[in-house]
Amino acid sequence: MVDRLVRGRNIHPTPETRYEIDPAQLREAIAGNDDDRFLVGIYHSHPRTKPEPSDFDVANSFWPAQVYVLASLRSEPPEVFAYRIKDREVTKIPIAER
User: Using CA atoms, how far apart are residues 67 and 64, in angstroms rounded to an integer?
Assistant: First the structure.
């Protein structure tokens, strides 16, 4: 169960089309975890495209055990999907609400 969200700043030179989480913020979020908390996922939005991992997303997915959540803002309400990305293999997984 997710009980905390840490927002990271996008530091990529072209943030309109790419994302890169600020490494200092990512380290702080991970190091600040309690013993009973750990990084379960990373999210970002696709403002104008489908909520599917792009080739860039797949190539830059360095966390194979974590969930990648993508939100498309092209419609209202936004479309949101979750994926596991391991060895460039993308698997869509369900999102459960409680």
Answer: 8
**H/E element holding 41?**
strand 41-46
User: pLDDT under 50 in the chain at which residues?
Assistant: none
Domains in the chain, CATH or no CATH each: 36-93 (3.40.140.10)
Which residues face 1 on adjacent strands?
Answer: none
Please, which residues bridge with residue 21 across strands? 10
Exposure of 35 by Cβ count < 10 A (0-12 exposed, 13-18 middle, 19+ buried)?
Answer: exposed
Report d(CA 83, CA 86) in Å as an integer. 10
| Global pTM exceeds 0.90 | no
